[in-house]
Amino acid sequence: MASSGSADLVIVANRLPVDRVTLPDGTQGWRQSPGGLVTAIEPILRANQGTWIGWPGGTETEDELEPFEDEGMNLVPMAMTADEVEDHYEGFSNATLWPLYHDVVAKPEFHREWWNSYSAVNRRFAERAAEEAAEGATVWVQDYQMQLVPQMLRELRPDLRIGFFLHIPFPPTELFQQLPWRRQILEGLLGADLVGFQLSGAAQNFVRLVRQRVGHKTHRDLVYLPDGRTVKAAAFPISIDSAGFEELARSEQVEERAVEIREQLGNPQKVFLGVDRLDYTKGIYARLRAFAELIEDGELDVGEAVFVQVATPSREQVEQYRILRDDIDRLVGRINGDLGRIGSPAISYLHASFPREEMAALYRAADVMVVTPFRDGMNLVAKEYVACRFDNDGALVLSEFAGAAEELRQAWQINPYDINGMKSALLDACRAEPRDVTRRMKAMRKQVMEHDVAAWADSFLAELGSLGKAHGKSVRPAKRG
Ligand code: GDG
């Protein structure tokens, strides 16, 4: 067994929850990256002298990166070489696994050198986790970039409780089969005691694959390993800091900014909004086309209706993402060129990222929120919109292929491959009676406000703690305000 460290809870994720920034005095520092996962996990890490292991972005070497403390969290930055960024991160993670796990919306590429790099990076992260974790500690591994870590870590440290959570969909057998390293990935995940997914369908896909491909005995959500260990696969739908978003949305600053945004748009009757990482899974192209056709058909008028699309830059070194960016640029240019008028574009397109306050103001300013991914693990944007609509107004158009659709039943649900269906839903949502809008939003708000990200993290860790009682300490629950 490797020597043990002092952390009772270790998070292993591809990225650290902080970004490297240049401070006003020119020195390098860290800024907490805004995100639901950090908000949820930070209080638990504090209550457990926890440690977060992850890549800080960039290609600094190991010697240049020292572990440090940030607001009660111990952060351990892991270096990646330029080759590893290209092969492990941009390659295997984002050009093999990402498209494969999202219904093959784009064609996954299979390259042996990418796989080798993915394995090597996973091994280094597992070794580091083994060094940091105290005897009997809990290690929670996050997401598709780290699927081999559970097994690698268990070999080094059989005393640990290991959990894994996949933030993206887990594909059906027919698609997963394509992966040349399918068995290694399944075995990697089986190193965990608890494998969490967004939806129960994904957990079932996983158990079925383990039975078919690895040959282990399974019963419902349990896998029985030959060494006597049991692995549980279950759904833990992730959420957001719901109260935090609502509070932000209620602030005077955000309220004023929302009014200002509508003024700057020319005070149209209806503001439609899309907010996504610029990713081909999100269905941005089809959604903008549907909106443009409604104008061409005479159903909506430019000036009275406007579509604001925020597309946050993402994975810009990956070829598919560059192609997508060009496609969207061209489409927006064509739509505005054909349909816009002076001072009234049909689409207001922003390829940029914004502070959380601006996101909340956009959610407040929008009458119709349009979330139309072809496939999405959950989609937090839909939940953030709901959390910000404390007046119970605002309409949500939501793809049935987003994980969030299982909880947000009262949204106008659409099939993003069906352009006509999407057009009707956009019109229905924007013309709906206020009473209908309120009834739907009230029900969705109840769901989102009651099931926040803290509840998500607590329920995962409680379940992990209840498994394999024979070994390991339990994680202390966080003290939340
Ligand atoms: C993956 C899964 C799953 C976006 N632009 C800005 C900004 N954002 C924030 C949003 C939201 C988050 O990023 C995006 O989360 P999503 O869930 O919508 O999508 P992915 O990035 O694909 O996330 C997804 C999620 O993991 C969690 O498990 O739901 O299915 O694909 O919070 O608000 N935030 C700020 N500025 C921006 O410009 N501040």
Describe the fold and architecture:
The chain is of the alpha/beta class and 481 residues long. The chain folds into 2 domains: 7-238 and 454-467, Rossmann fold; 242-450, Glycogen Phosphorylase B (Rossmann fold, 3-Layer(aba) Sandwich), CATH 3.40.50.2000. It has 16 helices and 18 strands. The chain has helices at residues 36-47, 82-101, 112-132, 149-156, 173-176, 182-189, 200-214, 242-250, 252-264, 284-296, 319-339, 356-365, 380-388, 419-431, 434-450, 453-466; strands at residues 7-15, 18-22, 28-32, 51-55, 68-70, 73-77, 133-142, 161-165, 194-197, 217-219, 222-224, 230-235, 270-277, 305-312, 347-350, 368-371, 395-399, 412-414. The strands form 3 sheets. Strands 5-6-4-1-7-8-9-12-11-10 form a 10-stranded mixed β-sheet, sandwiched between helices. The protein has a 6-stranded parallel β-sheet with strand order 15-14-13-16-17-18, sandwiched between helices. It is globular. The protein starts with 6 loop residues before the first strand and ends in a 15-residue tail after the last helix. The mean pLDDT is 94. GDP-alpha-D-glucose binds next to strand 13, helix 12 and helix 13.
